[in-house]
Write a structure and sequence with these properties.
The protein is of the alpha+beta class. It has 14 helices and 20 strands. The protein is globular.
Amino acid sequence: MEKDLIKYAELIILKGINLQKNQCVLIQGSIDNYNFLKILAKKAYEHGAKYVKLNIKDIDILKSRLKFSQEESLVFIPNAEKSFLEEMVQDKWARINVDDTENFEDLKESSIGQKMSIYQKSLNLASKTLSQAIMSNEIAWCVVCAPGPKWASKVLNKKEGSQTLEEFFKIQKKILLLDREDPIKNWESHGEKLHKRCKTLNELNLEKVIFKNEKTNLEVYLLETSLWTGGSEKVKGTEIEFNANMPTEEVFTTPNYKKTKGIVYATRPVMVLETLISGIWLKFENGKVVDFGCDDEKQKEILKSHIETDIQAKYIGEVALVDSSSPIYQSNLIFYSTLYDENASCHIALGAAYPSCLSNEEDLKTDVDKLTYGCNVSLIHTDLMIGSDDLNVIGMDKNGKEHTIIKAGKFAI
């Protein structure tokens, strides 16, 4: 398994962030994935990194802070941390985020959950410069997940152990195209397929996208300059290509946050403030969430805190299309990971939009410019998976003509 992890790390360094000679790299992840973080760091240095910084999260230490700290202490972020993030953007570091998939529902206590909302908001404010740079592709970035015993056990519903982990990693390797002879070449071919799909969608010149199944009936309006994006992207102002998500199966764009209307039901659980929430539904009017719910009434307060992070958190910033040919969907597994589950299913995201998905991005220099135009700005970006076997997606172009994009869960274009 170690040999395959090294192969995986090399793929992330070469095709994820596309590390440049003498570039600095930030690698973020959980202490539970420390071995993989070390492998990534070693590979980065092997391929010419100037400096690699590890930022390690420990859920137990975070729980202690939330439990024992006063609320006013939770907003404290050292100035050195803020300065470092600004330096990262200025000096064009690359960032790898290894999502924490080893801790599920560890912050269930309501008092801690409320404090988590306060802490997360302060963290988001402190890292706003970096977040905006990422959303605008000013730096190369990549989000991945490392195989771990708890994650494997949760997904496969089997007892923790090396056998379960090996079985899970075999599935993960197939999804990541690591089971092929030349993963890098296969990633390039996969990216070309997604680029072609984007080209087809952009040529339709769509005004809105309509999602319908047994429960969902949602209309998402696009902007005049919305561009469908998928596969590899380029660091702004350069020819350096990177893959922001590994795996990736989506094509996505930035909608007009002011116009979304209808009701939508999530088809997969969503991680919100370190709590896994199932059965989320949202009702939109004039772009805004006006009603919402979930399966567990106790968790509704956590969801409420999250979508009240700021004024714009109740509006969407992304719409993405994925069909049932996705290998993640084909696995018939729920991964309890936003990265994996969003690439198994069509989804929308509450909160911040990707300015990089707008052809007039350069004209939108301030947050006010973006919001006035219809490009959402928020401290959160939370994906909500809405795809299903019975989902139909209709695109209506600016002449009022309808185009079937997805029929019964499968692409029709």
